[in-house]
Amino acid sequence: DQQVKQNSPSLSVQEGRISILNCDYTNSMFDYFLWYKKYPAEGPTFLISISSIKDKNEDGRFTVFLNKSAKHLSLHIVPSQPGDSAVYFCAARIGAMRFGAGTRLTVKP
Amino acid sequence: DTGVSQDPRHKITKRGQNVTFRCDPISEHNRLYWYRQTLGQGPEFLTYFQNEAQLEKSRLLSDRFSAERPKGSFSTLEIQRTEQGDSAMYLCASSATSGSLNEQFFGPGTRLTVL
After folding, report:
1. Which of B49, B50, B102, B111 is the best mutation test for A, with the most CBs of A within 10 A?
2. Which residue in the set B44, B91, B100 is minimally distant from A43, CB to CB?
């Protein structure tokens, strides 16, 4: 059973524009949501997180929004840079973490 | 380098052979996790330890898989009688229990190919 879903396998945006990555989940018991970024040949690296009791968390160019009623979260990257090109995984935690399948972001110069 | 390390980075084996992977977590982290990732998917949780105690195991962890963390530091993941379906990237992560986030830091992974 896939409790965390990323329905867009890829996203392409122009440098300087906003990138919006989406994630849906099914389990209302998740207490933390996290975004990880992965480059080829490396393990995922932590990017930003949000507690289930909040609806927004911002860190520099990265903002995560949580809509509990819709069981949806999103990651906004503004402005997007070519170095942001990577696979982004959404993860939700209840004990162990459950990951989505990832979205490959390409930022074009 | 004080990050999570994994050894080997790549392993090619024949079906039916046993393989063992090692993970060295960040030294002050008491939690250690194993994940498996196949092409086009996110990491799938396999098991995790707090110190030397194995606290949770996924249904994905068949009886051919065994993980240990004997001294609460490094961990090993053994797969017995490997099958072609075991081919995947095996990721290790570690975290500290202090604080509320428990952010996990991942190693580079061990890529297993079963021929």
Report:
1. B102
2. B91
Residue B63, Ramachandran bin (φ over 0: left; ψ between -120 and 50: alpha; else beta)? alpha
* CB-based contact, A94 to chain B, within 8 Å: no
pLDDT mean over B30-50? 93
Residue A44 sits at φ, ψ, to 5 deg, of -60, 145
Does B5 have pLDDT greater than 80?
yes
What does each of the 109 residues of chain A score in pLDDT, given as a tens digit?
679 999 999 999 999 999 999 999 999 999 999 999 999 888 999 999 999 999 999 999 999 999 999 999 999 999 999 999 999 999 998 877 899 999 999 999 9
Single out the residue of A109, A97, A81, A106 nearest to residue A36, CA to CA: A97
Mutate to test the interface with A, among B1, B50, B97, B101 (most CBs of A within 10 A): B101
A:B CB pairs within 8 Å: 53
- Give the position of tokens 């965390």: A4
Q: How confident is the model at residue B100 (pLDDT cuts 50, 70, 90)?
A: low
Q: Yes or no: say if B46 and B36 are a contact pair by the CB < 8 Å rule.
A: yes
A contact residues 18-77, partner B, Cβ 8 Å cutoff: 32, 34, 36, 41-46, 49, 51
